[in-house]
Design goal:
The protein has 421 residues and is an alpha+beta fold. The chain contains 14 helices and ten strands.
């Protein structure tokens, strides 16, 4: 049967996805000369899953001397919509993520491979193809659903097993940076300079300030409606001020003394889980567009306030914080460094207290999107070719439900009760 013409090339998706480029990627992937023959559409991802890129799931076919071959991938392309690409600075996020996958992660893994690890970090997604020029950026990643990994339901907070899986994989990931920075500081400096801050930086103040005011007002509204007349209302109003962006810059850019290569966007959607009898037994990290060089506590606090419920924190917060550090310290020790010297438990806990405000502030952005029903997701079909302020497009309003308000307000309650704000 003849193939339809649009299955014989992917250049209409991106001009850099030539047949020659795909043949080269297939050859590298399979370790033998493989010529691209055609591709097949599998599915889209859910509406609202990605604001910074366009995503589709496809299967890419090739032919070698040993027969037909194929690989199933998530194809991530920079938005063709010019207004969307400019408004959301997609080129910066693509550059940061592609640099992570091609220049940073391989060096971390190479360092780790020289160590005798009981359970090395291997919970990442493999790159099939990447290209970066700021206009035609592409990142093509192996589809982990074929390896038994899938997403958790994001509207509800994750349970203890999910959360421990997340904390474990983050600890294993962060530990590579601590040990490499300790043992090979110049090499670590080289790779840390390959990534840059994409969200909280002085150059981005005008880009974010109006939206910060919007999400701060949503947080205040939630606390006022659910905890009227309490100290929590006073505290959230004190917290949701324009100057808070200065604190976010401080946390994201001035914590390199205790810094690691961190994920930067550790909310529910960016972890995939493998299940046995409906229980998560492993997690993989995806989407490194916001990766940064900063204290690992920024990742942890965002997990706490973006992914967990109030009830989980009441019952298990201390357990989870301690669990993360135990895994981290074990990994660092197995790689030949002393966790007590390079990142002691006392120092770690002091940073949890100092920087938990970061996770709270970032959750003011994520929580409204997490609790949105898919049909209410922001429409990214923007008009024109001009850069807009993100507040002009991300026009989210107060929570419609008591459950949504409590999800937000209880994050404030936890921070206040623990003396974090």
């Amino acid at each position: 049967m003849a193939l339809p013409e649009d299955s014989k090339t992917l250049t209409h998706v991106s001009p850099v996805l030539t047949n020659e480029a795909l043949s080269g990627a297939l050859t590298k992937w399979f370790g033998e000369d493989t010529a691209f023959t055609h591709w097949e559409y599998i599915s889209e991802t859910g509406k609202g899953d990605s604001y910074l890129s366009d995503l589709i799931r496809i299967r890419i076919f090739g032919q070698s001397q040993n027969g037909n071959k194929h690989v199933q991938v998530i194809l991530k392309t920079i938005p063709k919509n010019i207004a969307r690409r400019l408004t959301y600075r997609s080129d910066e996020f693509f550059k940061n993520e592609i640099n992570f996958y091609t220049k940073v992660l391989p060096e971390l893994l190479k360092f780790q491979s020289t160590k005798n690890m009981t359970e090395p970090f291997d919970k990442y997604v493999k790159v099939f193809f990447s290209y970066c020029d700021g206009i035609n950026d592409v990142l093509c990643l192996e589809d982990e659903s074929l390896n038994g990994y899938g997403s958790a339901f994001r509207q509800e907070g994750v349970d203890l097993n999910h959360c421990k899986s997340i904390f474990k994989v983050l600890a294993q990931f962060h530990a590579m940076s601590f040990a490499m920075k300790d043992q090979e500081p110049e090499r670590f400096d080289d790779i840390s300079n390959q990534i840059f801050e994409t969200y909280y930086h002085e150059r981005l103040r005008d880009w974010y300030s109006r939206f910060w005011a919007r999400i701060g007002n949503i947080a205040v509204d939630a606390v006022e409606k659910e905890y009227s007349g309490t100290i929590y209302v006073e505290k959230v109003k004190q917290f949701c001020v324009p100057e808070r962006y200065d604190d976010m810059i401080e946390a994201a850019t001035n914590t390199k003394n205790t810094g690691v290569i961190s994920h930067g966007d550790s909310w529910t959607n960016n972890f995939l889980f493998k299940y046995v009898d409906d229980i998560p037994v492993a997690a993989k990290i995806i989407d490194f567009q916001l990766c940064r060089y900063a204290t690992p506590v920024l990742d942890l606090t965002f997990v706490v306030y973006a992914c967990t419920s109030h009830n989980l924190r009441v019952k298990h917060y201390d357990e989870l914080i301690n669990y993360y550090y135990e895994v981290l310290a074990t990994q660092i020790k197995e790689m030949g460094s002393d966790p007590n010297k390079i990142y002691s438990k006392v120092l770690f806990l002091s940073e949890v207290k100092k920087y938990s405000y970061f996770g709270l502030a970032f959750s003011f952005e994520s929580t409204p999107f997490i609790v949105l029903d898919p049909e209410d997701a922001v429409d990214m079909d923007m008009k024109g070719d001009k850069k807009m302020n993100i507040d002009d497009n991300w026009q989210i309003g107060p929570f419609k439900t008591k459950e949504g308000r409590l999800r937000e307000a209880n994050n404030v309650v936890h921070c206040v009760d623990n003396g974090y704000i």
